[in-house]
Design brief:
The chain is an all-alpha fold. The protein has 16 helices and 2 strands. The radius of gyration is 23 Å and the shape is globular.
Length: 489
């Protein structure tokens, strides 16, 4: 029963994924079909056949009938940037997604609409990512903030800057919470029963603080490879435990070592549960999970021969791989533990499970060396918002700000224990803004500044982009309400 259900879930999303990420083939009226991309970029992805195919047509209408695009970009290869983008998307946030499914369903069939949600939100996120790349192509911007300045205005550029800063607060907070739970379980595996609070304080003061005080983080770059390796191994281990039945209700070999509240529990609320408002908790968690949009300008400008067509291939392929990974890991977790799925799914597994123990170690090491990179974005963002010039950021000032900011994050991690709440609430607010709202506003601004040079197709697509933004606002409002409600329960 297990294998057919999982195959059904994956297979049901394959056609949608293929439609979502098929590159748009467009042609200029009066010319033969061609893959040529001219000076104005086409819409990257065709995500839902009627609506987004319209935007592909809009892009085609802006293409001149002759002449070739002069592309530039950096020296990043397609394969290298694809690996980096997948690594940027597939992080520890995927380990909370089974809890998002458990928020609205308790029967295995709830995973079917969850798979469609993961695919749909992934497609919309990819569209927002690609919109930012197009804005950079229009405006020659090199950063998210610069894209806002050139497409809208410089005076309000603090809005996306502040959003990115506070989004890194959510990221570092989630990292601290996951590290506390993970190291607590690792210590228990080797016979040390240490409380979550003491674990967090110890790891923060002994490991995280020295790393965050480093001024040059380039030496940590090689360790980022551990992130994707750790996720691959964790997906493998979760799959083995799911198919092997090690946690099967009443018969699993590891169940005696799992707390009653974390043992598998299945009810009768299946696919129909997706119509509950609680489904927005998963939707907003996905907004956090797919969040990498502030790096879109970097990927566009670093891509060698960065035509929009090549950028769209990069975006479509990377998000498709990420979607497949999210579906598999979410399915393995939820189909193993059902409505008992924890906000960090690794917490459901026995501390005596050696295979999962290695997963915890891999995730912990990955987060430890990724933590300073995310924290640096938080600290530097605070200094940017405080308008402290770079030349005045002495080592002494950086050290003081580091200690204060890290203390704030640690205090919040001690008080808030449900990482799924952080991811869902952060996704409902800042995540939705960065993924849906800001890219649409920048695209509208860029098209508006073209004036009469903007084609009718581009002007029509502005309506599509703004509809996507309104959808993001709506999902955010409901998702934030449901996240707060779940915290109160």
């Amino acid at each position: 029963m297990k294998a057919p259900l999982l195959c059904l879930i994956v297979a049901s999303c394959i056609p949608w994924t293929a439609v979502a990420f098929a590159p748009a083939r467009t042609m200029v009226p009066g010319t033969m079909p061609s893959t040529h991309i001219a000076s104005f970029p086409k819409l990257p992805l065709v995500m839902t056949s009627p609506v987004l195919r319209m935007s592909a047509t809009a892009a085609a209408m802006e293409e001149p009938s002759e002449g070739k695009e002069t592309s530039s970009g950096g020296d990043g290869t397609m394969s290298a940037l694809m690996f980096n983008l997948v690594k940027s998307i597939v992080g520890a946030g995927v380990l909370s997604l089974p809890a998002g499914v458990a928020a609205f369903g308790s029967a295995p069939s709830a995973m079917i609409p969850a798979a469609f949600l993961i695919t749909g939100i992934g497609g919309l996120s990819a569209y927002g990512f690609s919109l930012i790349g197009r804005v950079c192509a229009f405006t020659k911007a090199n950063s998210y903030r610069e894209a806002w300045e050139k497409s809208i205005n410089k005076e309000t550029s603090i809005i996306p800057a502040a959003s990115c800063t506070f989004k890194t607060v959510c990221a570092t907070l989630a990292y601290s919470m996951i590290l506390a739970d993970t190291f607590k379980a690792i210590f228990a595996t080797v016979g040390f029963n240490i409380s979550r609070s003491n674990t967090l304080l110890g790891i923060t003061s002994v490991v995280l603080l020295p790393l965050c005080l480093l001024k040059n983080l380039s030496s940590l770059a090689p360790f980022s490879l551990l992130g994707i390796v750790g996720m691959i191994y964790t997906a493998f281990a979760m799959g083995v435990r799911y198919f092997g039945g090690g946690y099967a209700a009443s018969a699993g070999a590891f169940l005696p070592d799992v707390a009653a509240s974390l043992q598998p529990a299945f009810g009768t609320i299946g696919a129909a549960g997706v119509f509950s408002p609680n489904a927005f908790i998963l939707v907003c968690m996905l907004s956090t999970a797919y969040m990498s949009h502030f790096n879109a300008p970097k990927f566009y400008n670093e891509l060698k021969d960065n035509t929009i067509e090549r950028f769209n291939i990069l975006v479509g392929s990377s998000f498709a791989i990420s979607i497949a990974t999210f579906i598999l890991m979410t399915a393995f977790g939820f189909l193993t533990f059902g409505s008992s799925s924890s906000g960090l799914i690794l917490n459901n597994y026995s501390n005596k499970d050696t295979m999962i123990g290695f997963s915890r170690v891999a995730v912990a090491i990955s987060l430890v060396f990724s933590y300073p990179l995310a924290f640096a974005g938080f600290r530097d963002g605070v200094l940017d918002l405080a308008k402290v010039p770079v030349e005045k950021r002495s080592n002494g000032l950086l050290n003081k700000v580091t200690v204060v900011c890290l203390s704030l994050i640690t205090g919040l991690a001690l008080a808030v224990k449900d990482v799924s709440f952080v991811l869902s609430f952060g996704g409902a607010t800042l995540g939705n803004a960065l993924i849906y709202v800001y890219p649409a506003l920048m695209f509208r601004g860029a098209v508006k500044k073209m004036g009469d040079k903007a084609s009718p197709g581009l002007k029509k697509e502005v309506k599509l982009a703004m509809a996507n933004a309104c959808l993001g606002v709506g999902m955010g409002l409901v998702g934030a309400k449901m996240a707060l409600k779940s915290l109160a329960l």
